[in-house]
Amino acid sequence: MRESWETDASIAWVRVHQVPDHAFFDHSVHLNAGVGCQSCHGRVDEMEVVGVVEPIAMQWCLDCHRNPEEHIRPKSEVTNMKWEADETWLAQRSEVAAALNPPMHCSGCHR
């Protein structure tokens, strides 16, 4: 990253997750819901080489859609890898999660 910044050269990204063509995924919807990057991608700030932490498969996604509470955090903290829930957040988390209403029907992800 530093070399890219210093030389103004693009980073050669290597795809870690491949979403099938028949599935639709939008990062912005998840970030706006307060799903932390760490929930799907793990602690990338501590990885020497980034790899798969979660399967990003239909069953795993549906499990999260059914029970998103453990994966959400304040929207201002979605990219904060070191964030930990405090008592204030834990007191309101279930109410925030209940308001999300993530899709569990086929057309939510398959278009």
Structural topology:
Elements: H1 2-7, H2 27-33, H3 37-41, H4 58-66, H5 87-98
Distinctive features:
111 residues; mainly alpha; 5 helices; 35% helix
Architecture overview:
Helices cover 35% and strands 0% of the residues. It is mainly alpha-helical and 111 residues long. The chain has one domain. The chain is globular and about 45 Å long. The mean pLDDT is 92.
Question: Would you summarize the structure shown here?
Answer:
The protein has helices spanning 2-7, 27-33, 37-41, 58-66, 87-98. It has one domain. The protein is mainly alpha-helical.
Strand content: under 5%
Q: From the alpha-carbon coordinates, what is the Rg to the nearest angstrom?
A: 16 Å
Total helices: the number is 5
The number of strands is 0
Q: Which structural class should the secondary elements be placed in?
A: mainly alpha
Query: What best-fitting shape do the alpha-carbon axes yield?
Result: globular
Detail the poorly predicted runs: none
Structural domains: how many: 1
Please describe the biggest sheet, giving its number of strands, its sense, and whether it closes into a barrel.
Answer: none
Mean pLDDT: 92
Order of helices and strands: HHHHH
How far apart, in Å, are the first and last alpha carbons?
Answer: 35 Å
